[in-house]
Amino acid sequence: QVRLVESGGGLVQPGGSLRLSCAASGSIFSINIMAWYRQAPGKERELVASLTNIGRTDYADSVKGRFTISRDNAKNTVYLQMNSLKPEDTAAYYCAAHRSWGIQPYWGQGTQVTVSS
User: What are phi and psi of 38, to 5 degrees?
Assistant: First the structure.
């Protein structure tokens, strides 16, 4: 079992920045991919960014060049640095820990990001 705890969400003006954190604990040795998803009201959950154990990163087209996923292995924590935020980035953001793609991941509880003036 893997436990994920997100933090760092909040209200920010358009053009601003936020950094989300996801602290992992438990059987993290089984995890090969860490990812951030988001879900806006009335929309499906979408994959925003992922980071594999060998350091490969992938991003949704809508966030490329603005968001960066990274990790601190010593702290078992994954981050999502979000810059140049837009109102359309408003959503609940979820951290996920995958053993592999295609297997249901472990989920965090989510953190709300609201981009508004």
Answer: -145, 155
